[in-house]
């Protein structure tokens, strides 16, 4: 799926009377040669991995090998189950987003969506929206939403690589939020225009987000940023479904993200030399986790979780 803009996608969906999901399938079929049914089988398998990861992380505490992170998804999930959540729907999405990220930090199996460091955002939002709308977490509706998410990720990636090393965490959790917002909007019945504007509003709310992994690990602050990105995705989807539109066109938002990413200093792009990683506590954690004098090797944007 490449070589198309947000504007072209909306035009194709509107003039050709096809959904964004089918447009994504058509583009992927042209790239891979796989039939639509085969592509959906691949997507369904990825959905199962997503479901397994968030189920594991919410139902029981999952702790990383370093011990820096873990159990927060379960804590939030329990708060929802015990009636202590301020907003149960948002809290479920946050818990699931944390769960996916915690499972990744614990070297579990996840789907990079679009990266390992941002893997919790899309399943956190999408599975929660499906649950709220009482759609089954299998079947064509949720698969269509995943295809829309994939299309959004590919369009953004045409502007700049989706890695913290290249463009900061805005390229990882920011793109994940855009993908999740568009997917949620599609699942809730939004048209193509609403979906791409949901993506744009999510992305522009995360412009400039730095990548500053403490000790070079995909844990602090990465895990909790998945939760924040999920909340932003939900807000963007709500606005788009209500008729709110981004003043700056979606393609220009993606272009701005790329420019911001190129302008970020190296210390704020996954090197572990700036931001939270450079705080006194961050440096102490790095020394403790890696040993005195050890160098922190970034792993935030690894393509797979483990």
Q: Quick one: how many beta strands?
A: 0
What's the overall geometry? globular
Return the string of H and E elements. HHHHHHHHHHHHH
Average per-residue pLDDT, rounded, comes to 94
Share of helical residues: 55-70%
> What gap, in angstroms, lies between the N and C termini?
26 Å
Biggest beta-sheet profile: none
Total helical elements? 13
Give the C-alpha Rg: 18 Å
What topology emerges from the helices and strands here?
Elements: H1 6-15, H2 20-32, H3 36-59, H4 72-81, H5 88-105, H6 121-132, H7 140-157, H8 164-167, H9 173-187, H10 192-204, H11 222-241, H12 250-263, H13 280-290
Describe what this molecule looks like in 3D.
By secondary structure, the chain is mainly α. It is 59% helix and 0% strand. It has helices spanning 6-15, 20-32, 36-59, 72-81, 88-105, 121-132, 140-157, 164-167, 173-187, 192-204, 222-241, 250-263, 280-290. Helix 2 crosses helix 7 (140-157) and helix 9 (173-187) packs antiparallel against helix 10 (192-204). The chain is globular, with a radius of gyration of 18 Å.
């Amino acid at each position: 799926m490449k070589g198309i803009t947000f504007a072209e996608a909306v035009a194709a969906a509107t003039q050709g009377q096809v959904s964004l999901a089918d447009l994504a399938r058509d583009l992927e079929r042209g790239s891979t040669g796989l039939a639509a049914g085969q592509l959906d089988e691949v997507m369904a398998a990825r959905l199962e991995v997503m479901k397994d990861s968030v189920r594991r992380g919410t139902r029981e505490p999952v702790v990383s090998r370093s011990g820096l992170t873990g159990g927060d998804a379960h804590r939030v999930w329990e708060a929802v189950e015990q009636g202590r959540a301020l907003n149960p729907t948002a809290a479920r999405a946050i818990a699931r987003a944390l769960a996916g990220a915690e499972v990744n930090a614990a070297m579990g199996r996840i789907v990079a969506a679009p990266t390992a460091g941002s893997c919790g955002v899309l399943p956190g939002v999408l599975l929660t929206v499906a649950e709220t709308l009482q759609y089954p977490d299998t079947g064509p509706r949720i698969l269509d939403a995943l295809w829309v998410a994939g299309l959004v990720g590919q369009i953004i990636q045409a502007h700049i690589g989706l890695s913290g090393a290249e463009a900061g965490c805005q390229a990882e959790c920011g793109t994940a939020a855009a993908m999740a917002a568009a997917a949620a909007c599609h699942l809730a019945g939004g048209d193509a225009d609403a979906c791409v504007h949901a993506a744009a509003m999510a992305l522009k709310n995360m412009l400039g987000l730095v990548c500053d992994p403490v000790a070079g690990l995909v844990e602090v602050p990465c895990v909790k940023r998945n939760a924040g990105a999920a909340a932003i995705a939900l807000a963007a989807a709500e606005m788009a479904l209500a008729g709110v539109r981004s003043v700056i066109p979606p393609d220009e938002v993606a272009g701005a993200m790329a420019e911001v990413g190129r302008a970020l200093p190296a210390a704020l792009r996954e090197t572990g030399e700036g931001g939270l990683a450079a705080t006194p506590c961050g440096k102490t954690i790095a020394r403790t986790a890696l040993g005195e004098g050890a160098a922190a090797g970034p792993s935030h944007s690894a393509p797979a979780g483990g």
